[in-house]
Every structure is written in C-alpha cells, then in structure tokens.
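Sequence, please.
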C-alpha cells in the first residue's frame, strides 16, 4: 500500500565486478508522518506480537506479524535499559538503528559493541528487521502497491506497537542506519515530521537517482542489483523505473521518477530542518579507521575531507551521493555534523562513527 500520508495525495568481467560493487550499496557484507499519537492505544494497528525470545539478560527478540510484511513475521531486537519492565506506567526513549542491504535485526549486535553503549544509557535500542532490499519504503509493485509496505509497517504499525506493549516513549526517539539503513534513517525522518529528534547516517545510500560523472555505478544500479540478487525479485517492484537519463534517452520519459524522488534523502532534505544530524561517508580508499573499540572517541582529525574518491566502487559511489546531500543541506541552511574521510564500506568505520555520534543521539532523546 502507499503510506497513509501519501495515499490521500496520490488519488563482461568489469561489468561483473561493477555489479558486485553495486550490490554492496544495498548489501554491505558483500563489500568487505506525523508524530505518533500520545495515546498508544489510539494508534493501534494491525501489527501484533507472535513470539518473544530472550536473547540475553537485556536483549529481547520480538517476532511481529503484519499484513504489510512479505513474510509471516519479522524480528525486532530490543536492547533494554536497566530496570526496564512492561509492568510500569513510565516510558523509555528509543534509538532505532537500521540495518543495511542484505542485513537483519542482528547486524548491529554482531558487528559492533552497541550492547555496551546501550547498557550505559536509560533508553531502549530498537533494531528492526526488514528485507535485504526493503529500502525502508512502501513498494510500488507495478502500481498495485500492497505488501511489502515497509514504511507503513515501521512508522504506522511497529512504532505504536512498541509504545503500546514495550513502554517506548511516543515523543522521544532518534534513528541511525548504515548504507541502505542510512538512507532509511534520513528519509523517514524527513518524511515524518516529529517522529525522530535526531538522525545519523553512516555511508548512507542517500540519492537513488545519483548519476556517476566518471563511469562508476549509478544510483539505480544498486536497486536493480539489490532487487535481483538479494531479494530475487523484479527490481521494478520497488519504485518502478527512474526514467531519464537511466534506461532511456528521451528526456520526456520520466516513468516513476516521482516515486524515486519521494524516497530519496537528497530530494527530501528540506524535511530535515531543525533535526540534529550526523552524516558520515568515506571515499573508497582503505587507510584503516585509526580507531578500535575501547579507544577514546576518534578525534575530529579523522574527518580529512578527501578531495576525490578512491578505488572501492561502493564507497566511491556513496562519496558522490553524500557530497551532493552535503551541498543540498548547506544550500537549505540546514546544519549537520559532517565527517568525510578516507575509508571503505565496512563495519570498523561505521562503529567508529557510531561511538562518536552516540552522545548526540542520546542527548536528543534525553537519555
């Protein structure tokens, strides 16, 4: 289905290597609204809990069923603060952390020390599972809409469910994400005023309509390869076709470009006004993060603002996209903490930035 807020308005070898690199935009492992109603009961939706599994002393995995999903259920991992219980009238602020392409609800806990970060704060960390090519959006499905409707599920169903059953505060939430999840974090924030008080994007896929100026992958290539190789489906189901200048030479042939723009952090950037932002991206040159878990937060000197991209095609493309977003934010007068550095599309860089940005995210939600 179209998200509720919009339903009303709508009435060779080198080529193979390139495809694998594009896959990394949506599959990082291959590369190494309105604010919710104050009364959660009033916002009850069709999503329901079908199973709970304790994955640790302060880690709870929740299986959620919804007609908006393309599977019987999807998992949500919750990192719980000390003293958390369902049986109380108080609520806790939440930090949503979104996985990249090909990932799931376990990615952040398997690849970073986010559990240790969360343990020191009085907040719930929400790690939702979507699909390997969800793009955190409602799918076009050749004009039929319907499932999967990831934006509807996350914002209209899962969020009120967490408020209703797991004591999530309806007014204090922040969001972050990597790669495809970085796109999700910024785009959902921009499209749902008041939903999130801060957002962080780590190597985010922020412009699906990006056109490489020098022969690298274009933005739509990630959707094509992600849909076909990760989700094993027709990529046109996601947002339709982007139109000119991709796959057509006719400037008048724009096809479903409106939907690609609707789901672009770059094109929705005006909606980020007034939101504390952390934007990290690298240039595709692997110099090492210069930091490891247990070190003090990395200094500002890590952000060496490279003038040009390096050889790794995935982060090289991310470098171009985020440079455009950075310029757009500046033009709009929207401040952001930006860190552009040497690096590639992989976890050590993202964990470094998570540690640096975590205090800002926590301050925004009063944790």
């Amino acid at each position: 289905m179209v998200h509720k807020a919009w339903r009303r308005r709508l009435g060779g070898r080198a080529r193979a290597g390139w495809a694998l690199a594009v896959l990394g935009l949506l599959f990082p492992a291959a590369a190494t609204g309105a604010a919710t109603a104050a009364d959660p009961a009033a916002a009850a939706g069709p999503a329901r809990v079908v199973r709970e599994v304790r994955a640790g002393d302060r880690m709870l995995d929740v299986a959620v069923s919804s007609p908006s999903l393309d599977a019987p259920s999807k998992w949500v991992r919750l990192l719980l603060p000390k003293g958390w219980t369902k049986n109380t009238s108080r609520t806790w602020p939440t930090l949503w952390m979104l996985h990249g392409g090909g990932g799931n609800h376990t990615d952040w806990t398997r690849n970073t020390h986010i559990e240790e970060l969360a343990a020191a704060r009085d907040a719930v960390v929400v790690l939702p599972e979507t699909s390997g090519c969800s793009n955190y959006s409602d799918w076009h499905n050749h004009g039929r809409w319907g499932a999967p409707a990831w934006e509807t599920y996350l914002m209209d169903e899962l969020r009120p469910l967490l408020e209703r059953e797991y004591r999530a505060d309806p007014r204090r939430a922040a969001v972050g994400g990597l790669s495809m999840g970085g796109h999700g974090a910024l785009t959902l924030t921009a499209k749902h005023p008041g939903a999130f008080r801060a957002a962080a994007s780590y190597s985010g896929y922020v412009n699906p309509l990006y056109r490489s100026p020098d022969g690298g992958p274009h933005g739509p290539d990630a959707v094509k390869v992600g849909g076909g190789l990760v989700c094993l489906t027709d990529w046109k189901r996601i947002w339709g076709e982007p139109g000119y200048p991709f796959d057509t030479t006719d400037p008048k042939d724009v096809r479903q470009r409106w939907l690609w723009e609707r789901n672009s952090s770059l094109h929705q950037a005006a909606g980020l006004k007034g939101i504390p932002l952390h934007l990290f991206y690298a240039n595709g040159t692997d110099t090492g993060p210069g930091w490891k878990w247990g070190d003090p937060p990395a200094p500002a000197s890590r952000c060496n603002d490279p003038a040009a991209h390096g050889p790794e095609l995935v982060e090289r493309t991310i470098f171009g996209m985020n440079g455009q977003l950075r310029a757009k934010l500046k033009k709009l007068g929207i401040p952001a903490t930006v860190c552009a550095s040497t690096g590639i599309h992989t976890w050590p860089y993202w964990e470094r930035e998570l540690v640096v940005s975590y205090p800002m995210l926590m301050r925004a939600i009063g944790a």
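The longest strand covers residues 168-178.
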